[in-house]
Amino acid sequence: MNTAKPEAIALFCLTPGGVALAQRLRAALPLVCFTSEKLLQPGFIPFGGSFARTVAQAFSQYPALVFIAATGIVVRVIAPLLNDKLHDPAVVVMDERAEHVISLLSGHLGGANDLTRQLAALLGADPVITTATDVNQLAALDTLAAKLDASMQDFRQAVKTVNQMLVSQQRVGLWWDGDFAPQAHEYDTRGFIPVASLDALPELDALVCVTLRDALPAQAIPLFKLVPKRVVAGIGCRRNTSLQIVAELLDQQLAENHFDPLALRAIGSVTLKQDEAALLALAKERQVPFRLFSVDQLSEHEQRFPVSAFVRETLGVGSVSQPAAWLLSHGRLVGHTLKTQGVTITLGVSDRC
Questions:
Q1: What is the CATH number of domain 141-228?
Q2: How far apart are CA 285 and CA 282, in angstroms?
């Protein structure tokens, strides 16, 4: 998904009227505005070589692209760039008189629908949104996943199936596990049937469960597990430990605490491990950030945990995995610290998206 891109929005304007409208919007939104050399205004960036080339560069660099232009022009210029709904940025189109704002691409996961509504509200324009769930005033599984920063097995097919069931007026239940239940009211769940307990289901055609668990009780209906990314792992290891060893031990820790592997949010270690091949490869393999903490940052919390004289002599701090997990999870550690084969792993659960 495109959540790792910068927060600024790329805006493209092709006419004097578009430039004037962009000027109005700059006061309210974090915009990076592009236009042609002949229309250039202070604070605007000229197209780099051509309009199409600049759009191609922005498509992979920004979470959202806004065009003040004809829809046909925009469709033609972005067509060669399209990948899939999990990676494409939001694309919104509006006319220079600010009468209509159109959600064109990545309405749910990319946030184009929300951006369209925001722009329309700022301009007093008509928001044009055509996704079936929105048209029918229903929630969407991919939107819920994005808001929760959650994933699931076979994400694309699951979203297609559940959203189709919702718009077909089938009964799709929604169950929130443990700590997530008090937060349920914060999310758009229109169309889902609330489920209080997995032991006494109402009549349903399918069930979506928001949980970190690696396993749930079997049900007689299709079950879709939506897994928020909340689990963090502080990791320390001997130099040149293999990726296989670290990965297997991390999976062992996750399984021991009954966490779904999809719940992993980040791994962390000391800055001296910034070039540790196994940790870099692990972060890339699991598609999570690799967070590094200085010796001073870890030392602030090492008194909470057992320390190792050897680790202190080697790294300058007596413990790595536990204070790293403490910082990543804001003090919410779970389970015990695994120590074997020159590797230490401590898990925590962050309550923040």
A1: 3.40.1390.40
A2: 5
Please, are residues 60 and 3 in contact by the beta-carbon 8 Å criterion?
Answer: no
Under a CB-based contact definition with an 8 Å cutoff, are residues 19 and 47 in contact? no
Q: How far apart are CA 59 and CA 207, in angstroms?
A: 35
Output the CA angle 150-151-154, nearest 5 degrees. 160
Q: Answer whether residue 242 shows pLDDT above 70.
A: yes
CB 156 within 8 A of CB 86: yes
Q: Is domain 9-130 annotated with CATH 3.40.50.11220?
A: yes
Q: Where are the domain boundaries for CATH 3.40.50.11220 in the chain?
A: 9-130
Query: For 134-174, how does the pLDDT look when each residue is reduced to its tens digit (9 = 90+)?
Result: 888 999 999 999 999 999 999 999 999 999 999 999 999 99
- Domain range 231-349, CATH architecture: 2-Layer Sandwich (3.30)
Predicted model pTM: 0.80
Q: What is the CA radius of gyration of the chain?
A: 24
What residue spans in the chain does CATH classification 3.30.420.180 cover? 231-349
User: Per residue, what are the HEC states of 295-326?
Assistant: HHHHHCCHHHCCCCHHHHHHHCCCCCHHHHHH
Q: How many whole angstroms separate alpha carbon 50 and alpha carbon 33?
A: 15
Alpha-carbon distances of 151 from 156, 198, 225, rounded to whole Å? 10, 21, 9
Nearest to 141 by CA among 94, 102, 189, 184: 189
Q: How confident is the model at residue 187 (pLDDT cuts 50, 70, 90)?
A: very high
Label residue 274 exposed, middle or buried (CB < 10 Å: 0-12, 13-18, 19+): exposed
